[in-house]
Target: Uracil permease
Amino acid sequence: MGAAERLADYFNFSDHDTDYRTETLAGVTTFLAMAYIIVVNPAILSDAIVIEGYDQTEVFQMLAVVTILSSIVATAVMAFYAKRPFGLAPGMGLNAFFTYTVVIVLGVPWELALAAVFVEGIIFMALTAVGARKYIIELFPEPVKFAVGAGIGIFLLFLGLQELDLVVPYVDADGLPSGTLIELGNAIQSPVAALSVIGLGLTFFLYARGIKGSIIIGIVTTAIAGWAITLLGIVQPDVLTPEGAYDDITNDGIVSMLTSVQYDFTPLFWGFVDGLSMIPEEPLVFVLVVFTFFFVDFFDTAGTLIGVSQFGGFLDEDGNLPEIEKPLMADAVGTTFGSMIGTSTVTTYIESSTGIEEGGRTGFTALVVGAFFLLALFTVPLMTAIPQYATYLALVVVGIIMLQGVADIDWNDPVWLISSGLTITIMPLTASIANGIAAGIISYPLIKTAVGDARDVSLGQWTLAIAFIAYFAVYFAIEAGTITF
Model:
């Protein structure tokens, strides 16, 4: 048996009726859909992390490097240990919470915040090893499990439409916000919206024709078109190209860009070490920060795994993911490693659904994602040349496809109707997977009781509902300033 056959056997290609071409295409698609994190994560974290002796451009590049490294490690664990087609990277939302709530608003030193993420990761590893995370996730009510996929779909769709300028904040004639929160973007006034409509039309056309790689073709074609329109002088630089990328490439040249990266991230590591030494000085602050990181990340990751797995057909008849502890361990390892080198919580990405839509079914898809992150490590500046709106085409397409999940919901049962409906709608409306799950979990025992089926609600499900209520009480108290540090 040759090396290719052994590798295919290791990843169980035959069991999943897949091949190298399909898995590779899926991995590339997932990477392109989540590659924006290489730029966005440093942009967010650099608002909080200031290192003496380094300018913010150097800090930004350090953070880009550690974003990539943490993604490689976590995705490698996913590929070889969990053997699932999921990509991992520092999580959006969690990085914003790290920066703007914990460090900037609450005044927690970034070094101590990294230490909190590290402890969170260690706790996750321990809970995963003993099966506690799996047990808690399997307590999720069935209506919630089967609604998560559609909820994530609408979340992706809404997020993508915003980034494509096709859904915009509503303002009146004086430019002030009005009663209607959003409206349709103007494709005549916005070059991004106009090109996005064309890109979406092409992608949907190819998808409907059953052409493999339709999503990646749409992304690449739209990105090339944006650069071509800019280079022809039809639109100004930084409109259809990432900010500063046009000047960097035309003035400095590609070779200069590739050799100007700050790869030495040891200042971030030593900042993490300093954070560990701060724990005895601020024990209450530290515990509260760890609790918040833990709670949000736990349910955000759980929701993503269930939703994406439902989309890929990986769930069993009870809505559970077999051997879920393995992908959970991947994000725990990624979080622990990432915090040590300087980034916020690492988690499974909902963009993994783009690769699953292209046919990815095994860990080889994740291996390809990791390989492209490794390649990106040597081309950090060039990654900034990919327009973010082009990658968000994938979210719109996959978001619509994921709506198929509503067919698994019994809409005639009031328990399913309310719990599933809240799970699906709260996710996009609050931009949080965890909030959607919370709404479903809290409502489930209440509605079960209302219809006379309280005996069907387990003690664990009541405990989960109460835990969510307690979490929100603490979170809102911090937001309102009732709890201060």
